[in-house]
Amino acid sequence: MKGRCRTAFFPAALVFLLVSIPGFTKTSVNLPKSTADNITAKHDANPSDHLSSDQTYLVKKGDNLIRIARANQTTVAMLKSLNGLKNSRIKAGQRLIVPNSEMAPPRDSEPKVSQNQEAAARHISQLKEQALISDEESSSTRLRLVEAGFQMIGIRYRRSGCSTKTGFDCSGLVKSLFSRFDIELPRTSREQFKKGEKIDRDKLEPGDLVFFSSGGKNPTHVGIYIGNDKFLHAARKARQVIVSDLNKIWYTMRYLGARRISDLWTEQPASSSKQD
How far is CA 118 from each of CA 33, 115, 151, rounded to the nearest angstrom? Predict the structure, then answer.
C-alpha cells in the first residue's frame, strides 16, 4: 500500500514543480501562429464585434428591410449579412445592426436629373440612327414631350397622384406631361382612352398613348410610347416611373390599343413646355 502511495506522489510532485517554474504556464498555453490567425480572422469577420450602439437601428411598425436599407445607404443583402438573417422578415422592436459611414456604399454624386437627361439624349439619338425619326422631328413637340417624360423617371408611384412632389399614378403622369404642352387630357385612363385617333400597334409613333387592360374592354393602365417598342409609365409594381418594353409578355397579353392626340402633332415653340 505504501508503495502505491509513493508511486502516485512522485508524478504529482513533478507536475507541481514544473508549474512553479517561471514562464512554463505562459509557454504551455501559447497557440501555433496559424491557429491564432484563424481565431483573429473569425473575430474580425464579425462586424458586430466592432460596432458601437449608435450603429444599430430599432425596427418600427411598418418598417421593412428595403426601407431601412435606403435610409442607411446600404443594401438588403448587407443588412441580412450583418444580422445573420435568412429571410426578410423583421418585427417591431427588433434591433438591427446597420453599417457605419465607412461600410456604407458611396452615394452617387451625379444628380438623377442629369442622368435622365443623358438617357433621353441617348434614346433620341438611337431613334435617329435607326431612321425612326428625322433630324427635324427630333425638335418636335412630341419628342420634347418624350424628353420631359424621361425627367420623370424615378419619381415614385402614388395612387391618384398627379404631381412630381407627391408622385404619380399612370393616368396622372400622362395628364401632367401633356399639360406641360398646353394639352389638357381627362384624369383617368378610361376617359383618356376615348380621346384622340385610334392607332394600330405597327403605326405607333413617339408621343402616342398605349393602353392595357387586366380584364374587360376598359383600360386599367396607360403609358406614353417613346419609340423603339418602349413606353414610359408610372408602374405600380415598380413603385415608380419607369421605361418598359412593349414586347414583354405581360404587356403583350394585356395590350388594349393606342390613341394619338392630334394636338401633340401641332408644332409649338420650344419654350412652350411648362413645369409643375
Answer: 55, 5, 10
Q: Which residues are catalytic?
A: 170, 221, 233
Provide the CATH number for the domain formed by 112-270 in this structure: 3.90.1720.10
39-102 matches 112-270 in fold = no
Half-sphere exposure of 73 (CA within 13 A, CB side): 11
Contacts 24+ apart (CB under 8 A), 62-65: 63/90, 63/92, 64/88, 64/90, 65/90
| 39-102 CATH | 3.10.350.10
Could you read off the pLDDT of 93-118 as tens digits, one per residue?
999 888 764 444 444 434 455 787 78
Residue bearing the bigger pLDDT, 13 or 158: 158
The domains of the chain are located at 39-102, 112-270
